[in-house]
Write a structure and sequence with these properties.
about 400 residues, about 40% helix, Nucleotidyltransferase, domain 5, alpha/beta, six-stranded mixed beta sheet
């Protein structure tokens, strides 16, 4: 029986799923919540169990993961773990393909550490833990930008010197590809059709908007690095290069310092001192001016990206809101959808309020554009990558 562990180290959470013979068997999630840190475990066929954990266990979660996975495999007499698939968020054409993690791959990953400081360091740490605890398992890198690798050149290229762009590999790579791919795979089951023109809004600690035409990415807001595009939890999003250069000059920042600055001192945190959307919504309800401004800027940026994506698509059939913040908060969805009626996006207030944490349609019945709330399934998408990779190796 083939066993695969899916590892998804995000910027504010750690997610792990164990698949046995292609079926989900066990999930573990470590997350920063309002009351501190928690770990939730869920074995298929049983109730989810959540418990508070110290910060140290949140930051070094893999020791606990190994313990839980080892116990599960022993109880099920499933033998040892066959493969581990990890989500890779890293800029570069080299990383726009799913592949086995080799010494060469690790070396290239370390070289781009400064370009994705919220993801690559934690990813390298997770891979080191995999090698320590599951020595025999094959490690597969699931590229978070592979879904965007065939974007048209008008969307992929910057308006810089062609020779420099090619030599230094400076292109718009895009991210959240695994999330968007999972929506493409699952959308028919939710609405009974495969839309020709679809926009997927992934809204969480990291946020992006992607235009999907006939199942393929043709435009997305994240570009060279996951810092770009929309303002996010602590990432600045798009910033005039001259503005960043001025900050570097007046604050005496070196390039690495500047990279860390725009990744950790920008976005919602930079504007309000808080990166958690749940807490910001609570502050907004209390008429906190900083929270009001931050969320208005955040929703406005998403609205602009949605409108721009309709140009790439030549219209719009379906708008999908996915990822943690969008799925959990009807209030946030209301803020995002409130100024889009001119695009044919007509939200049902009642449906929106009733739908929390589930998949479904929240647009009015006669809305020209169908608005759908869907849970993303990055873990399932990564498990499919591992299965396809193993089959490919078997044929080879």
């Amino acid at each position: 029986m083939e066993t695969t562990l899916v590892v998804n180290p995000g910027s504010s959470s750690r997610k792990y799923s164990l698949y046995c013979a292609g079926e989900l068997a066990l999930t573990l999630r470590f997350e920063d919540v309002n009351t501190g840190f928690e770990m939730c475990s869920h074995m298929t066929g049983s109730q989810q169990v959540c418990e508070a954990v110290p910060r140290s266990e949140f930051e070094d979660s893999f020791a606990r993961v190994y313990e839980e996975v080892d116990k599960f495999l022993f109880r099920k007499s499933a033998g040892r773990l066959d493969s581990v698939v990890v989500r890779v968020v890293a800029p570069g054409t080299y990383f726009q393909a799913h592949q086995e993690v080799t010494d060469e791959y690790l070396a290239k990953l370390k070289q781009c550490e400064t370009s994705a400081p919220l993801h690559v360091p934690s990813l390298l740490k997770e891979i080191a833990s995999v090698k320590k605890y599951f020595k025999q398992a094959k490690i597969i890198a699931a590229s978070d930008s592979a879904f965007h690798q065939n974007m048209p050149s008008r969307a992929r290229e910057y308006s810089i010197n062609n020779e420099d762009a090619e030599f230094y590999d400076i292109h718009r790579f895009g991210y959240h590809g695994l999330s968007v791919a999972s929506i493409v795979r699952k959308i028919h089951a939710v609405i009974g059709q495969d839309p020709e023109r679809m926009i997927v809004c992934h809204i969480g600690s990291g946020s992006s908007v992607t235009a999907v035409k006939n199942g393929r990415s043709i435009e997305t807001t994240m570009s060279f690095s996951p810092t770009s595009g929309l303002p996010m939890g602590s990432r600045a999003g798009d910033l005039d290069a001259s503005g960043l250069l001025e900050l570097m000059r007046v604050k005496n920042l070196r390039p690495r310092d500047a990279e860390v600055y725009i990744n950790t001192n920008g976005g919602l945190f930079g504007m309000s001192g808080e990166s958690d959307i749940r807490r910001l919504l609570a502050r907004r309800a209390q008429n906190d001016p900083k929270a009001i401004i931050a969320l208005d800027k955040f929703s406005y940026a998403i609205q602009k990206a949605i409108a721009a994506s309709t140009i790439a698509l030549g219209g719009l059939d379906v708008l999908v809101l996915t990822a943690t913040a969008a799925v959990r908060s009807n209030e946030l969805r209301y803020l995002i959808l409130s100024r889009l009626e001119h695009l044919g996006i007509c939200m049902s207030v009642d449906r929106n309020e009733l739908l929390v944490g589930k998949d479904g349609v929240i647009s009015v019945r006669n809305s020209p554009v169908k608005v759908v709330v869907m849970r993303t399934d990055e873990m399932g998408e990564m498990a499919q990558v591992a299965t396809q990779f193993s089959q490919k190796l078997g044929k080879g």
